[in-house]
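#structure-requests
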Amino acid sequence: NHAGGVLGGISTGQPLICRFAVKPTSSILTPRMSVTQDNRDVDLVTKGRHDPCVGIRAVPVAEAMMACVLADHYLRHRGQVGARV
């Protein structure tokens, strides 16, 4: 099942497999080169870790979005072909 349960938009009957990635937080402690609005070079240094850990919250959000997408496709299909069982 390397297709994730879907081949050509048609379900194979296997469980759907979804993968996603989360970018790292932007306030890393490594100094970065940047420029000011008047094009002067500056070193940008972040003090402290003020970003929340989004990795913990990402899984339930992704699951909820997947549920919304599946429900949307189910309702669109049902609207096209009717309520046949």
